[in-house]
Amino acid sequence: MCLPWPFGCCQMNKSLHSAKVFQLKCPVQKYAWGKLGLNSEVAQLKKSADTTFSVEECETYAELWMGTHPSGPATIINNPTLEGTLLKDWIIKHPESIGQKVEDKFGPDLPFLFKVLSVNKALSIQAHPTKEHAERLHQLMPDKYPDPNHKPEMTIALTPFEALCGFRPLSEIKMFFEVVPELKAVVGEVAAELISAESRQTLKNCFTSLMTCPEESFKKHLHSLIKRLQDTKQEDKLDQKLRSLLLRVHSQFPGDIGCFGVFFFNYIVLEPGEAMFLAANEPHAYLAGDCVECMACSDNVVRAGLTPKFKDVKTLCEMLTYQSRSVKDTLFPSVNDPCDKFVVTYNPPVPEFAVSKIQIPAGTSSYELQVIDSGSILLILSGGAQARNATLGSGSLALSRGTIIFVSAGETLQLKDISKNMLMFRAMSKL
Fold this sequence. Notes:
By secondary structure, the protein is of the alpha+beta class. The protein contains twelve helices and 22 strands. The protein has helices spanning 41-49, 87-93, 100-106, 131-140, 170-179, 181-187, 191-196, 200-211, 215-230, 240-252, 313-319, 327-330, and strands at 21-25, 28-29, 35-36, 60-61, 63-66, 75-77, 112-119, 125-127, 153-157, 161-167, 265-270, 275-278, 284-296, 302-305, 335-336, 343-346, 354-360, 366-368, 376-388, 397-399, 404-407, 414-428. The strands form four sheets. Strands 1, 6, 15, 16, 17, 18, 19, 20, 21 and 22 form a ten-stranded antiparallel beta sheet that branches. Strands 2, 5, 7, 9, 10, 11, 12 and 13 form an eight-stranded antiparallel beta sheet that branches. Helix 8 (200-211) packs antiparallel against helix 11. The longest helix has 16 residues, at 215-230. The radius of gyration is 23 Å and the shape is elongated.
């Protein structure tokens, strides 16, 4: 018998629990870096699911939150007895809905937050602490680090998605010291250390020297670099893509030390379906595009550039892995499900979450969602169907673009009347 990968077969006795399936209403976050109006996938999905939702073309729609986070909790809708109930409150009363192993480890709550992001402007150069480090930071600065949890993240592109992620191969950084004199000047004398001896320690010394360079000095050199790159008559050895990226980032954050980060971090363009996993202490910055994201529930972000928010440069420079790698090695693979030809799963090395992408081709007469031993959230990106479940009785749920469904542990959905090609993403815990 083929078991659903990687979670195993759920053998829960339904008579022992009150599992349910229902639709969710989820909030939108209007951060300044989001895309405007209906250019935003977030706004489009929200509008598709809720025709009463008003989209203003001058507003930014950055994130769609699907989960129980107190800053943006989901509520139950289209259920006459539960209408308007917070998903978090329902789970507290029905902890079996998230699975016994999940409840035992994390308590009666979802340990993940599922999102859609629409990025128009660079987010901060940042990293997330380990669990132990998060606990220390929370004790020292609870106003800046509001909880004691870590925040690993998984990003899956919906459109071409640009990001900075992880340190470049040291040979590339050394090359930039040779062809970008302004960078070498800002890094200072320690640049020679990396040139003569490639190691994590010399990389750490160079990056720390960059990020702690006095403002007057780095702004002078950054201004000189930008002016030189803007002069199209001057020859330059920089790759055109990197040149354009630096000019774009500087236009968004003029005079910011983080602009020099493009020379230290890998510049990645994820194609739809490609992913990257951001473990603790890995530097990154999203730049542009739409993606699905899943993370452990936490608000702990250590920032050091490309942001008007609080910068904790010392902490960031101390905590990073300083593991350099290629763009290819930065990508996180998906794995075909051996039991379901329509499913690929992104399975990071953390217990809080995994994400499955489900693509059902047009012409498929029916489909049954796998039963797993975890509560999960299902997002429909395209296509449509009628969904049935034993707890719905004779009723059904209409699935279409933007629909968001909570599926309790041990439950399934039977899809009928499938229209067009369906694309869905499902976030879950895995223990």
